[in-house]
Amino acid sequence: MSEKFIPIGRALSLESDEKHVSFRCWVHRKRGQKELIFLILRDSTGQIQAIIKKDSDAWKEAEKITIESSCEVTGKVKQDSRAPTGYELQVSKLKIIGLSEAFPIQKDFSEEYLRKVRHLWVRSTKLVPIFKVRSKIFEAIREFYTQKGYYEIQSPSFTKSASEGGSTLFKVDYFGQSAYLTQSWQLYAEALMFGLEKIYCIAPSFRAEKSRTRRHLAEYWHHEMETAWMEFDELLKFEEELITFIVEYILQHCEKELKELGRDTSDLKKIKAPFIRMKYKEALKRLGKSWGYDLTDEDERKLVADLGAPVFLTHFPRDMKAFYMKVDPHDKKVVLAGDLLIPGVGETTGGSERISDEKELKESLKLFKLKTKDYDWYMDLRKYGSVPHSGFGLGVERLVMWLTGTEHIMDTIPFPRTADRLEP
Ligand code: 4AD
Question: What pTM did the predictor assign?
Answer without folding.
Answer: 0.96
